[in-house]
């Protein structure tokens, strides 16, 4: 891939072409190495000998999760007898084939696909002297190759006097197994998928707003079986059956005004993408949503205070209504549980005491009901599974008709395309 340009483009495919044409030596250093160049090294090692190839990478699972290299590429090299050295923190990259060398910035595939566009500059061509010095300063093995390739005694001495700048050590079996196990336990995401998701990530988040425990008007308690057996008339009809409504549905302690306010927030600042997807919020509108949520929380606290002032009395009154409703039945047909506890006939006080004792087991206190009131807010990022649904774009367009989503979706499609041209 020899070029006279000082600034140029290097991709894994172009690096592979350089390696295929190697006549004497190959030196590669970088955060990681991709499979294609590694395969070319294995092939050329059969001609040059594995000792004429040097590889230095940051052999770390985090590097591979970022898409700087592949575990299988390192495995391929080691299996072919090519020594792979580990240099912690290595981020700049170097490729030297014979007398041609480049310093370049490798592409983290988690963030973007490798580009073959000549206008995407990521490499600088090294001079002959820089190639020799880079070899000498990279590792002892590379330095030995540089000395062996030197033509004159003076050049050999000069290279020999250069210090090695990079601390590195051979990737041993234990280290390889450890990194491999970590990647197997938690495999890296597919990089094209991750890039596609990031196209829409700046625009949306799923959001769920749930008002919990405020609807005390919907609370019903089960009438204890011992009381149900007493029977009764049609008094309290609508509230008292086998269950009892603690609060009248349209009473002033109802949470309906709060629920209306929260529904208005949902309607104004979030959009439903259908039952399959849930609701989303534009990230541009999220700060405003957060502000409205905080205002709503203030209203919720005020509602709790208002409810606390009258709720316990209301609960006590409701319990007294049940006691008054059933006490005569208890007196006339006392349950065995009560008969077994008293001597003599059942009095009104006995009936009330027994009924209150039964109801205490199921009646909540106002404090418990108020403590349970809260607003739950959760955000979730979009997933590839969602984005890949055939009706996702149409759902977005329908929910947000004022925006042009076609360009964004085209970018999404392009982010998943493979870049194979070298």
Q: Please indicate the count of domains.
A: 2
| Amino- and carboxy-terminal Cα gap | 10 Å
Residue-averaged pLDDT: 85
Number of strands: 14
The total of helices stands at 18
Main sheet, how many strands, which sense, barrel? 8 strands, mixed
Structural class: alpha+beta
Q: Which descriptor suits the 3D outline?
A: elongated
How helical, in percent, are the residues? 40-55%
The stretches of 5 or more residues where confidence is low (pLDDT under 50) are 233-239, 418-422
The whole-angstrom Rg is 37 Å
Secondary structure elements and their pairing?
Layout (H helix, E strand, L loop, with lengths): L6 E2 L3 H9 L5 E5 L4 H14 L4 E5 L3 H5 L5 H9 L4 E3 L6 E5 L2 E5 L18 E3 L2 H11 L1 H10 L3 H9 L7 E2 L2 H13 L5 H10 L3 E9 L7 E3 L2 H4 L14 E3 L10 H14 L1 E2 L6 E4 L3 H47 L3 H4 L8 H13 L5 H6 L2 E7 L3 H4 L4 H8 L6 H10 L7
Parallel strand pairs: 2-3, 3-4
Antiparallel strand pairs: 1-7, 2-5, 4-8, 5-6, 6-7, 9-13, 9-14, 10-11, 12-13
Helix pairs in contact: 1-2, 2-4, 5-6, 6-7, 9-18, 11-12, 12-14
Written overview of the protein:
The protein is an alpha+beta fold and 422 residues long. It folds into two domains: 7-188, Endonuclease, Chain A; 194-415, no CATH class. The chain contains 18 helices and 14 strands. The protein has helices at 12-20, 35-48, 61-65, 71-79, 128-138, 140-149, 153-161, 173-185, 191-200, 225-228, 256-269, 286-332, 336-339, 348-360, 366-371, 384-387, 392-399, 406-415, and strands at 7-8, 26-30, 53-57, 84-86, 93-97, 100-104, 123-125, 169-170, 204-212, 220-222, 243-245, 271-272, 279-282, 374-380. An eight-stranded mixed β-sheet has the order 1-7-6-5-2-3-4-8, with helices on both faces. A four-stranded antiparallel β-sheet has the order 12-13-9-14, covered by helices on one side. A two-stranded antiparallel ribbon has the order 10-11. Helix 2 links the parallel strand 2 and strand 3 (53-57). The longest helix has 47 residues, at 286-332. The radius of gyration is 37 Å and the shape is elongated. The model is unreliable at 233-239 and 418-422 (pLDDT under 50).
């Amino acid at each position: 891939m020899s070029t006279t340009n000082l600034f140029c483009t290097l991709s894994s495919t172009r690096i592979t072409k350089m390696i295929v044409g190697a006549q004497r030596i190959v030196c590669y250093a970088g955060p990681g190495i991709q499979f294609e160049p590694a395969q070319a090294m294995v092939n050329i090692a059969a001609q040059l000998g594995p000792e004429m190839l040097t590889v230095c990478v940051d052999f770390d699972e985090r590097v591979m999760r970022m898409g700087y290299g592949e575990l299988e590429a390192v495995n391929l090299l080691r299996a072919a007898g090519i020594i792979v050295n580990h240099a912690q923190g290595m981020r700049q990259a170097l490729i030297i084939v014979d007398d041609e060398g480049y310093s370049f910035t490798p592409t983290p595939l988690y963030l973007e696909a490798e580009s073959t566009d000549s206008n995407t500059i990521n490499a600088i061509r090294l001079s002959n002297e820089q190639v020799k010095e880079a070899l000498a300063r990279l590792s002892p093995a590379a330095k030995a190759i540089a000395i062996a390739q030197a033509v004159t005694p003076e050049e050999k001495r000069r290279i020999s006097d250069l210090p090695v700048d990079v601390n590195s050590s051979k990737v041993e079996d234990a280290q390889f197994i450890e990194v491999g196990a970590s990647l197997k336990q938690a495999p890296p995401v597919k990089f094209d998928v991750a890039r596609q998701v990031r196209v829409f990530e700046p625009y949306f988040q799923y959001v769920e707003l749930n008002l919990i425990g405020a609807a005390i008007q919907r609370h019903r308690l089960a009438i204890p079986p011992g009381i149900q057996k007493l029977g009764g008339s049609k008094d309290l009809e609508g509230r008292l059956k086998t269950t009892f409504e603690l609060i009248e549905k349209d009473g002033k302690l109802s949470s309906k005004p709060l629920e209306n306010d929260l529904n208005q927030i949902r309607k104004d600042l979030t959009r439903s993408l259908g039952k399959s997807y849930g609701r989303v919020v534009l990230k541009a509108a999220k700060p405003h949503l957060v502000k409205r949520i905080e205002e709503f929380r203030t209203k919720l606290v005020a509602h709790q205070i208002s409810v606390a002032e009258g709720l316990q009395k209301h609960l006590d009154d409701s319990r007294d209504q049940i006691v008054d409703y059933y006490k005569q039945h208890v007196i006339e047909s006392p349950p065995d549980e009560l008969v077994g506890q008293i001597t003599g006939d059942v009095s009104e006080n006995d009936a009330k005491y027994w009924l209150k004792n039964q109801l205490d087991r199921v009646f909540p206190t106002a404090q418990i009901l108020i403590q349970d009131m809260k607003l739950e807010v959760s955000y979730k990022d979009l997933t590839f599974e969602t984005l890949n649904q055939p009706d996702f774009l149409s759902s977005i367009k329908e929910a947000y008709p004022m925006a042009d989503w076609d360009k964004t979706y085209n970018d999404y499609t392009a982010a998943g395309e493979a870049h194979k041209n070298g």
